């Protein structure tokens, strides 16, 4: 049961004559800096020295981009932790023989969320009044800009930079957040640095379940999953109302798909594809561009075919 008060939680200790009891109060990470110990618990695979280096800028990013609640912070840590392998990488490692000039119009992934494409470097640079183009692109690998750019993208996610992820963090909507950042569900579950595993770590590290605001939050959003890390169903996510996110849920779960990042599941694949087709009926997609290497018209054909085949 979640705690909805500020009463002490946790362990008690007694002295030798068993007459003195010390109460330990567990405080969530709302509206305060997180500590090095909390960050180490969230990212257990990373050395203390690396986390120490990022911590001041991480807390500054939380403040600058209003990532103030413990639940928002947990979701932020889950996403950037996966994208950067727990702060190990601030630049994309390209395949052997591939040059940066040949990918993403010359601007590979940099920063804790792996910002790509010249237009994104330009947009972020304009926001913080700093030049990240041409020879200056490597500045995004510096701790300050790598961290701050992740905060900027959190508030301006998606290809059109029109998605603010703060509300979805407070709704505990990891399905929507993952799709908004990744486009699909790469790295969603399974490995130790998956988005789902890192969210579980961060919720524990930041004492989210002790937050006095949670009861009110989940009352306001009854469709949200209350930390059931084995599910987070599409139907309870805001992604259920987005064409491409629903298709992606089906495509990634499809046993015949080569996409990686989730456990293959025919039932979930059918749910995603079926919802995509429903949304097309309700309000046809205005986008002409295909997604996931599939043309727009073939996305519909593919979904229809797989719905009829999946059991």
TrEMBL record:
Keywords from the UniProt entry: Disulfide bond
Record InterPro entries: Lysozyme-like_dom_sf
Top-rank lineage group of the source organism: Bacteria
Identification of the protein by name: Chitinase
């Amino acid at each position: 049961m979640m705690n909805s008060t500020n009463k002490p939680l946790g362990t008690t200790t007694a002295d030798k004559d068993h007459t003195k009891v010390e109460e330990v109060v567990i405080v969530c990470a709302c509206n305060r800096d997180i500590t090095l110990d909390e960050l180490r618990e969230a990212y257990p695979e990373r050395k203390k020295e690396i986390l120490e280096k990022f911590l001041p800028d991480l807390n500054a990013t939380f403040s600058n981009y209003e990532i103030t609640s413990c639940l928002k912070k947990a979701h932020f840590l889950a996403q950037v932790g996966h994208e950067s392998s727990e702060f190990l990488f601030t630049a994309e490692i390209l395949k052997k023989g591939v040059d940066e000039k040949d990918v993403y119009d010359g601007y590979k992934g940099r920063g804790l969320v792996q910002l790509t494409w010249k237009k994104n470097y330009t947009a972020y640079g304009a926001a913080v009044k700093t030049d990240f183009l041409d020879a200056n692109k490597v500045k995004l690998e510096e701790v300050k800009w790598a961290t701050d750019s992740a905060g900027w993208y959190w508030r301006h996610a998606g290809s059109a930079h029109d998605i603010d992820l703060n509300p979805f963090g407070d709704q505990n909507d990891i399905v929507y957040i993952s799709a908004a950042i990744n486009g699909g569900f790469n790295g969603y579950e399974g490995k130790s640095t998956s988005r789902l595993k890192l969210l579980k770590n961060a919720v524990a590290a930041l004492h989210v379940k002790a937050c006095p605001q949670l009861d009110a939050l989940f009352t306001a959003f009854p469709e949200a999953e209350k930390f059931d890390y084995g599910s987070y169903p599409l139907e309870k996510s805001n992604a259920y109302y987005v064409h491409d996110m629903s298709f992606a849920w089906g495509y990634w779960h499809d046993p015949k798909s080569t996409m990686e990042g989730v456990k293959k599941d025919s039932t979930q694949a059918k749910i995603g594809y079926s919802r995509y087709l429903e949304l097309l009926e309700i309000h046809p997609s205005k986008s002409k561009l295909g997604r996931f290497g599939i043309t727009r018209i073939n996305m519909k054909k593919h979904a229809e075919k797989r719905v009829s085949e999946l059991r």
